[in-house]
Amino acid sequence: MKIKVLIIIFISLLFGTSFYSCTKETIVYDNVSQKEANKQLVQTISTNLGTGFNTVFKSLYSDSVERAVFVQNFCKNTRFFNDRSGYVVVESNNGYNIVYPPDDAMQGTYTLNTTDANGKLIVADMVAISENIGFGFLEYYYNNPITHVVEKKFSFVKAIPSANWYTLTGFYDSDDTYLTRTHMIEQVVESNVGVMAQGFEGIFAATSLDSLQGVELIRTMLSNIRFFDDQSGYFYVLDYNGYNVAQPPAPEIQGTNEWDIQDSQGNYLVRGLIETAKSGGGYYEYYWPNYQTGNDELKRAYVLPISGKDYLIGSGVYSGN
């Protein structure tokens, strides 16, 4: 009898330990650090803007002054992260600042000799990444203007080849919290949609583009932008009458009215997206073909209004991701 009890206890301990280990591994796998989430976020923003700016420069703006005014209007009021500490910098490969949102006085200044707290020539290293690789992270130590402490900073560089410039976004490594992968993806989508909405708002507020010029600019800017590992991420723009302004993976539907379109479940998805944007923005779920797989999949979309226009801009993630 004692032997049977001992065996039962042993088996219970064995399987109990194994169950605990598996559960722990699952939790670790399903969560990521805020640092890794922020790296994904700034990489996506910098890459998307670098790609968009490059397309606009090749197609619409060839003059360097026009290009500079364009990125300044797009970036100067663009912010991300909950505390709005994130912003987008554009620099030239020959060491001159094009736009530095926290301080307009920096525009046009020579920055190539800028060093971090340890004497590292950080701008020279950024130029090297832009010229030799085209994209990548740079780590350095800089004074955090919020904490007033020198902290490690991660910045992502993305080349704009048509102008010999690059975009730059970054963050300070001061957050040691964890979050789920789902939450990380939501942060990436929300921040990128927010950056694009603010950027277009800046352009339309500072210029006198007519409606056709505005549509051409939006379509050009968004046409080559793709993100996520499977390239299923993209931006779309709709007007409040239901017309498709921009749909990069399916340009043949641009200009068509989609007010009465229903998804496979009977939802009037465009009406739902417009209603969500008019109420200030947020998430809306519907079924839509995944352009990468060809399958009809549930999509969780995030939309925001573009202030000053009767437009919304959105992006999202398929359930398979």
CATH fold-level label of the largest domain? Beta-Lactamase
User: What's the CATH H-level homologous superfamily of the largest domain?
Assistant: PAS domain
Q: What is the overall silhouette? A: globular
Please state the structural category.
alpha+beta
What does this structure look like?
- With 321 residues, the chain is of the alpha+beta class.
- The protein is 39% helix and 24% strand.
- It contains seven helices and twelve strands.
- The protein has helices at residues 2-30, 34-59, 64-75, 122-132, 181-206, 211-222, 269-278; strands at residues 31-33, 89-92, 97-99, 135-144, 149-160, 165-172, 178-180, 236-239, 244-246, 282-289, 296-306, 311-318.
- The strands form three sheets. The chain has a five-stranded antiparallel beta sheet with strand order 3-2-6-5-4.
- Helix 2 packs parallel to helix 5, helix 2 crosses helix 6 and helix 3 (64-75) packs across helix 5 (181-206).
- The N and C termini lie far apart (53 Å).
